[in-house]
Amino acid sequence: MSxxxxxxxGVNYGNVVFTGASTVAAAPLVLDPRTxxxxxxxxxxxxxxxxxxxxxxxxxxxxNFHGNVVVSQDASDAAGPSTTDxxxxxxxAAAVAGNIAVVDRGTCGFVVKVLNAQxxxxxxxxxxxxxxxxxPGLGGNDPAITIPTISLSQADGALVKGNSGVVxxxxxxxxxxxxxxxxxxxxxxxxxxxxxxxxxxxxxxxLLPNALMEPSIxxxxxxxxxxxxxxxLLQDTGWTLNKGPAYINGCNTEVxxxxxxxxxxxxxxxxxxxxxxxxxxxxxxxxARMEAYRNxxxxxxxxxxxxxxxxxxxxxxxxxxxKN
Length: 324
Known about the structure:
The chain is α/β, with parallel strands linked by helices. The protein has helices at about 5-10, 20-30, 95, 110-120, 155-160, 230-235, 265-280, 285-300, 305-315; strands spanning about 35-40, 45-50, 50-55, 65-70, 100-105, 125-130, 150, 165-175, 245-250, 250-255. About 40% of the residues are buried.
């Protein structure tokens, strides 16, 4: 590519993808079906819109994100100078209740805005971007949030705020994967304008489920058990993955260390066995704790009954404990 082509590619949001064979093969094992935000009314702005996802609260899905859209109103005060930034308790809570609230990005954190919307009775939140560029990923963490949140670009947010009677819903497109192009290749994060340190070095924020290699940390990640396509990406760039079985105490548990979809149950078993061995007073205590851990894996459907039996058989082969 020429310098000009690379410069254009660096801000070509949604159209730059990772083509590594391992990552592309894993995409259908990891990513959700593709969705969009469908606006069905009013007719002037009806259509499908790309949206950004939040790293807090429940994921916005077909089942939980639909309804009438109401622009929030709150006081212009020390918490936030705008009357639509959602930084203070809503003054139009009666209108918001039972509907999707729209708030503007800026001044306070995303979780503050969403908690204020939730307190007003909103069923979901749309955060309208306050700067040019694609719909952003929304970072933050608060376990008190129980409603889904998405973001829209500044231009799309202006359309929603500028019209009354807006009805919106997350809908499945029927084809494709969320965060991948039509060929199933995961998108890379290439916003316009460039975000130094994030552009090109992460998966797109549009991926669902959220991935370790997205630009922001999301509380929906469970990296102790699942590292999604990040391991496949590393493999495509030259790393070697150990996809063999997990051994503890010199014994084969028959649980794969890491599988093609990024589940690292075997790696977790090795690490947990080592930790329990290092913090147990004796073999009896070690076995009891390993049994409880094995039961948790079974309850989560992460291992089979046979594998659970092998884990305990291998645990029983321990010969020494590292005391604190």
